[in-house]
Amino acid sequence: MSIARIYTGGCQCGAVRYRAEGTLGDPHLCHCRMCQKAAGNYFMPLANARRSNFSVTRGEPGWFQSSDFARRGFCAACSTPLFYDMPGADFINIVLGSLDDPYDVRPLSQSGVESRVPWFSHLPDLRSSETDAGKKTRTARHIAILESNRQHPDYDTDHWPPED
């Protein structure tokens, strides 16, 4: 007997949370221009969840009808992209970066490659640094950001924002 996997996720501010049970299918990076605009990024990472195993557990997403065939779900409070939905399909696509554990679902393919930025394959060659390299190197700016962070944690909470 196998145990179904449970995925949870939501927006940056915590106003919208969701849950998907089972396997997330077709994990991929979409480079199409529409996904670039919707993500405000060079690509959008997506995977689909069976609609019958998916639920919004807190709040209500906002929706933008991006074409006659699809709509984009997002948090109306903080603008986090959450879903790519084709009403009538038996699945909904989840934006993988909105998962509580985004490392858990590895993209297996790419689509919309006609719009992929030409230097995308050179990203590993770029100079890189960590956001917070350690307590010894924290600047006043890093400390101020940490102390004022309003981002929802990567797990379900009973209440959000936390009560004072």
Structure characteristics:
mainly beta, 164 residues, Metal Binding Protein, Guanine Nucleotide Exchange Factor, Chain A, seven-stranded mixed β-sheet, 10 strands
Secondary-structure blueprint of this entry?
Blueprint: E1 6-10, E2 17-21, E3 25-30, H1 33-39, E4 44-50, E5 54-58, E6 62-64, E7 71-74, E8 81-85, E9 91-95, E10 109-111, H2 140-148
Radius of gyration: 17 Å
SS-derived structural category: mainly beta
N-to-C order of helices and strands: EEEHEEEEEEEH
Overall number of strands? 10
What does this structure look like?
The protein is mainly beta and 164 residues long. It has a single domain, classed as Metal Binding Protein, Guanine Nucleotide Exchange Factor, Chain A. The protein has two helices and ten strands. A seven-stranded mixed sheet has the order 6-7-8-9-4-3-10. Strands 1-2-5 form a three-stranded antiparallel sheet, with no helix packed on it. Strand 8 and strand 9 form a beta hairpin. The model has no long low-confidence stretch (mean pLDDT 89).
Short description:
With 164 residues, the chain is mostly beta strands.
